[in-house]
Amino acid sequence: MMGSNSYLGLTNPPKVKEAGIQAMKKYGSGCAGSRFLNGTLDIHLELEAELARLVGKEAALAYPTGYQANVGCISAMVNKNEYIITDKYDHASIIDGCKLSDGTMLRYNHNDMASLERCLQKLDGKSALIVVDGIFSMEGDIANLPQISALAEKYNANLMVDEAHSLGVLGDKGAGAAAHFGLTKKTDLIMGTFSKSLASVGGFIAADEPLIHYLKHKSRALIFSASLPPASTASVLAAIKIMEDEPERIAKLWENTDYMMQEFKAMGYNTGTSCTPVIPLHVGDMIRAFNMWARLGEEGVFINPVIPPAVPPNGCLIRCSFMATHTREQLDRALDKFRVIGKELGII
Predict the structure, then answer these.
(1) Is 196 designated active site?
(2) What pTM value is reported for the model?
(3) Does residue 225 carry a catalytic annotation?
C-alpha cells in the first residue's frame, strides 16, 4: 500500500481501535442529530479543545468531513462584495466553498507570489480571504506561507490554511504548516482533516473564539449535518495522543520520504516540486497513467493514478504517498517494481 494518506500509520494501533470501540459502547453508533440540536456530546467538546491546543488557536469546531469543513467555513466567511483568493492547485473542497459563497473568487498561479500580489492589487480596499493548502495534495509541495502571510498583512487580507496533508507531517509534534513556519498567530483560520494522519474521518476549523462562535451559527454545512460519530471522535483523540507521545513516527515518515525521493530521482522519474511524503511521478497522458497503475497493481504495489479534473490535461501522474510504518524492505521491493515497469512503459 503506497497510496494511503495515513502518513503516521495510525489507523491500526490497538489504542486507536480500542478508543473507538469503547466510545461506541458508551455513546452508541451515532447522535442522530446536528451539532446545532442534539448532536453535541462531551467527547466532541473534548476533541475540539485538543485540536485548538494542538494547532495553537483559542477554539476549534469539528465537522463530519474535511470537505464540509472547507465548504462550511469558506461559504460562511465571505460575503457579497468581498473576495476569496486561492491557489490554482488548491483542493476541490476549497473551490466548492468559494462557489457557495457570495464573494468573488480570484485564482493565482501555483505558488507564484507575483501572481498572488496581482490578485491582491485588485481588491480596492475590499475585504479578502486568502485560502491555501499547506501541502498540495497532488504536487506534494509546500505553500510559500512566509510570503503569503506577508502579502496578506500588506494588503489587509485574512489568511486560511488547509492543513489536511500537513497535520502530522510538518510542524512541532505534527501541528502543521503554519506551525512549521512559525506563523500560527498570523494565520486567521486553520483547517484540518482526520482522514489522513489522524486515523479517522471528519474535519475541523480552528481560530479565535469569536470566529468559531460565528461559524457555529452561520456554517450551513455544520448546522444541517449530523454530528461526527462517537467512535470516529474517540479515534482522533487517541491518534493525537500517540502522535504527540511518539515523535519517532514523524521522524520515520521523513526518513522514508527522503529515501524514496532520492531513489525515484536516481531512476529518472520526474517528481516535480514535491518535497513531502506525497510524491507524484509525472507521466503525461492518461493512458500511460492507467497502464502504470494497472501494471504496478499486478505486481502487488497499490498507488493512485491522477487524471483530469484533479490535474491539467496531459499532466497525469502516479500519486505515491508514504507512511511511517513502511519498512525498508517494503520500500525496496516496491522500488524494484517501479524500476522495471517504468522502463517497460518508457517513462524512465
Answers:
(1) yes
(2) 0.94
(3) no
